[in-house]
Structures are given as C-alpha cells and as structure tokens.
Write a structure and sequence with these properties.
By secondary structure, the protein is mainly beta. The strands form 5 sheets. It has a 21-stranded parallel beta sheet that branches. Strands 19-21-23-25-28-31-33-35-37-40 form a 10-stranded mixed beta sheet, with no helix packed on it. Strands 5-8-11-14-17 form a 5-stranded parallel beta sheet, with no helix packed on it. A hairpin with a 5-residue loop joins strand 38 and strand 39. Helices cover 4% and strands 50% of the residues.
Length: 420
Amino acid sequence: MKKILMAICLSALSVAVLPAGVANALTTTWTAGTSNWDNTLNWTNDEPTSGDIAIINNGGTASIGGLFDFEYADRLFLGYDPGNSGHVSMSSAWLTVSSYEYIGYEGTGTFSQSGGTHSVGADLLIGHLAESSGTYNLTGGALNINGNISSWAGTGNLNIDGGTLTVTGGSIGVDNFIVGNVNGASGSYTLASGESISASNNIQIGRFGTGVFTQTGGTNSADNYLFIGSGSDGTYNMSGGTLTASIENIGLLGTGEFNQTGGTHSVTNDLTLGENTGGTGTYNLNGGALNVDGNIVDGDGTGSLHIDGGALAVSGGSIGVDNFRVGYANGSNGSHTLASGESLSTAYETIGRYGTGVFTQTGGQWLYRQRYIRIELRHSFGRLLRIHRQWRHGRIYPDRRNQYSYKRPLHRLPLRHRHI
C-alpha cells in the first residue's frame, strides 16, 4: 500500500526527469551524512529493496560492510542533480542492483569498493549526462557487470587497484581507465577476445601503484595517451587482439615494460621510452606487429628496445633509444633493417647475444652517442665474443655491398665490417 501511495505522490517534475521505465517505481533518497546503508532511518522511504530506486544526492556516503549484509536496489543513482554528489563505500557484504547503476548522473558520484560482491544487472554508467563526473575505485572484492561499463556525456573514471572485474557485455568505454592508481596497491586486468576498452582520454597502467594489463584478444584504444609506468611500475603483456594509442609513453616517471608476443599494436604519433629522469621504459617485441606512425624516442630516462621477433614499422623513420638489442632473448630470432631516409641513434647496441640477431643497413644513418660500439655474438661453441670499436665520428655507413648484417653466429667479426 505504501508503494502505491508513493507512486501517486511523485511530482510531475520528478516523473519527467527520471530515466524511462522507472517512473512507476518507488524512489527512496538518502538523507544522512556518512552512515550505514541498512539503517532505514537514513532513507526517505525505508531501505531500498530490489524493486526500488535508490538516490544518494546530498553529499553523503552510504557504507556497506555488515557480515550478513545483503543490499538491493532496482536502480542506483549517485550524484543525481547538477552540483550535488553521492557516494558509496563498500568493504564487504553484497549489493545487487537489478537494472542500471549511475555513478554521476548529472552530478558527481563515487563508488569505492574494497571488498564484498557488487552485481549490476544491466549497464554501469560512470559520468552519464553533461557536466557529470563519476569515479569507480575497485581495490578489492568482486564487481560483476551483466551489461557494459560506459560514460556518455560526462567524465567517467575507472580505477582498478585490486579485486576482480567481470563485464559480461564485454565493453568498457570511459574517459580514463587506470590499473594501479593508488600508492601501494596492485591492480590487474585481462582483456580477452570479443571484449573492448575505449578511453576517450587516457589509459594508465601503473600510475601510483603497480599495474599489470594483459591482452589476449579484443580491442583496446586510447584517444590521447597510453601510459605504462607513469609514476610507478606498469606492465603491458600483449599476445593477441589490437591496441591503438594516439601517443604512448612507457616509463614516464616510473618503470614501464611492454611485452608483445602477438597482435597488432599501433601508435599514431610517437612512442616514448623513459621520458623523464628516473623513468625506465622497455619494449620487448617477440611477435606480432608494432606500427609507429611517428618515431620511437627517449628522453632523460632510460629507454630500451629489444627486437626478438615480430615486425616493426616506424613511419617517421627515426629510432632513438639508449639500448637497442636484436636477438637478445634466449632462443630468439630477431631482425631489423635500416633503410634510406631512416636513422638509428643508440648509446649501446647488441646484435645476437642469447638469440640470433640480424641487422641489415641499406641506407640511412646509424648514430652512436657513446665513444664505443659493442656488438656481442655467440659462435657455435657458445662462447661470447665481445667486440669494442671506437668510431671517430660516431657514424656507421653501409659497406661496399650496402649491407651491415649478421645472419648466423660467427667466430670473428669479418674484416670488411671493421672498416666500414
């Protein structure tokens, strides 16, 4: 009887602004500051049930964390009106939202989960309407979305610092997607075949905490930056699927590592390895394709490029790193060709250390920043041969055959290569 009376008493304005399909449900609104979700006195129409609309819009925080705490709502709104906010803090127990959940509908919403199981029957919408802002912080527990995760006209942030995230619909579309956001935390995420992530702003792996992103398939894209190790330790493991970033930075201020064994990775501008002092960026190409429309560059940190397989294309024509290694990993078979109009600038270079390395120069410039060039090879008996050669002008040109390559293990460096 109470629900019938409440439905009749809803104002015409409320009916107009509620999303379609929920105008006839009972609406209960949070009235407390920071308090327990399960306290009926904290809601205008009792604690919400599985058929009710729950709204937190007064800047308050509903806490969920009882030992046998089972909480429900049909739809949940955090930050319903412009200029207002709502928050949920979940440390344990269960929260089941039967339909849609809005974190920042027209206002500001935050959901922080450190434990428990949070299930959403339809889509999780983070930053829904214009001027809204929503953030989901997952540091523990399980977040299960039966639909998709998306932002619409507002700003949506998804931070993963622990716990498990399952998106049955397979699609995540937010403004900022961060794995390893909180200092001292460790987050991970796996993107599989048939799934997708689209960030209209940035993707960060290892911001202040440790982040590991594994892509075995699917599609991942960042409209602006992809940061790996932006301030802490970040690792991206790619064995399949497609990855696209406008600008990519591995080791901005932290330690970033990209391990590619398959799939197609495309960067529409520059790929930077070790940009700032203290930053370390390493790219291990073992398979698949890495396509850089700009250049591969490093900064004041340490940048390393290891080619142990796969295919590398740098449309800008310039590679500048501290360490350039071809055939470095045990059992690997790597190769690289330097052609006319291209340049390679390195401090240290290794060709064929633990694997087989082939470097072919048909043109372009090969520039060394250090006084000595080191080329390391293994001959058939497994003994490591180190050759140090000082180049007065720090520049290597093609030999008479216009080629500088090592196609198999050698006992000694051929004389013609010593006099290029």
